[in-house]
Amino acid sequence: MRILATVVLLTVGFVCDLQAEELSIYEVQYTTDPNGLSPQHGNVVDCLGGIVIHKFIGSRSRLIVYDPNCAEGWGGIMAKDLDGTGEFNDVNVGDWVSFVNVEVEDYRGTTFLQYTAVHDPNYTIISINNPVPEPIPVRAEDIASPMEGIDQWVVADHNCEKYESMLIKVIDVNVKALDKGKAYDNYILEDNTDPNLTCWASDYMNEDLVAIYHLYVEVGQNFCGVAGILEQYNAVSDSNYYDYYQLLTLSTESFTIEQVADLDYDCDVDFIDFSDFAFMWFNNECTEPDWCSGADLTQNGSVDILDLEKLSDNWLEGKLY
Question: Using an 8 Å Cβ cutoff, are 22 and 113 in contact?
Fold first, then answer.
């Protein structure tokens, strides 16, 4: 039986340590296996779960679930309605959901909580309206591209496994190439500071998708940031071998083309931007298209307290902390 509690779940009391009975997401996901295999693979478990940060509707709906107590890694997981019976129809983004009798399966590299009638599963909505976390800022090298061969795309290592199913944001990149990967729906994101550093992304889970790629995705397009869920994909057959990671964008909001208050156009808001802003302080002759070198953020004709508030709201955005 599903139980709905309308109280807000506080994140105190949950830790990324061993649990006596139910397992945390951390316990399901954390692994020292060089290929990223979960130590719970094949087991039927109860899971404390976390906040639903995305819901993918398909023939087999998925919930992307995040434990905010594991913000540095190993805190995200995918739950799949394996039977395709609509079991997650009443679950919404922001709900904290826990699970009973779900099978842990590493399917094509990604760890799933498989919700299937075979094991008589259940879930409980513990609380609702929890805030969706901010994405973890990373560079392209933190989820490095695979080494490419003929019908092969293989990563050198699985060092980014801790980010699997977590919300991350690759900062300061451009679209280098399209038509990569097994389904040719991957594209390469290249670091703007070092063209040798790249990662792969895909838009198949993007709720605003109308074609194979999001409308914003074209070769040469620059992004201050691309956010999404990291998914591992591997498959082995007689004719090919794949093992790579892809950043799955979630909506149009996943793409940051320009960083608000980034006055020097380096995709972050820092003391250099503040210095440029201060130089224009109290200038009341701002007009388009320059708007006082961008310092008139509200475009009301002057650089004033309203612009300072907007700069403050975006302070250190785009920076790796």
Answer: no
Closest to 157 in 3D by CA, of 35, 29, 30: 35
Q: Which CATH number fits domain 260-321: 1.10.1740, 3.40.720, 1.10.1330, 1.10.10?
A: 1.10.1330
Q: Among candidates 73, 77, 91, which has minimal Cα distance to 4?
A: 91
Determine contact, residues 247/226, Cβ cutoff 8 Å.
yes
Report the run of H or E that residue 305 belongs to, with start and end. helix 305-313
How do 96-107 and 110-115 pair as beta strands?
antiparallel
**Topology (CATH) of 25-127:** OB fold (Dihydrolipoamide Acetyltransferase, E2P) (2.40.50)
Please give the pLDDT value at position 18. Answer: 41
Helix, strand, coil % over all residues of the chain, rounded to 5: 10, 35, 55
Q: How far apart (Å, rounded) are the C-alpha atoms in residues 272 and 313?
A: 16
As a whole number of Å, the CA-based R_g of the chain is 22
pLDDT beyond 50 at 147: yes
**What is the value of pTM for the model shown?**
0.86
CATH architecture of 136-256: Beta Barrel (2.40)
